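Hi support team,

I submitted a single chain yesterday and got back a structure, but I'm not sure I'm reading the token output correctly. Could someone confirm the output below corresponds to the sequence I sent? I've pasted both exactly as they appear in my results page.

Thanks,
R.
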Amino acid sequence: MTYESAVKIIEAEFDTIADSIHNKVVMTGLTYDGYKPFCVSVYDDRENVIITNLGETKEVFDEITES
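Hi R., thanks for writing in. Yes, this is the structure output for that exact sequence:
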């Protein structure tokens, strides 16, 4: 699947924001804690299409205790 075809499928259901020419942030409408948005991006690394959170999860889970 190409980046363009993946974006077309995603944009049929979700709004996106262009972060760069090879990355779009998908607006999921979800949050981790009612405040911080659940980040999902579709990224074109030229060989593959990657769906990623771009490391955003680490910003939330370091605030949660192990218990």
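A quick pointer for reading it: Residues 21 and 44 are 9 Å apart (CA to CA). Let us know if anything else looks off.

Best,
Support desk
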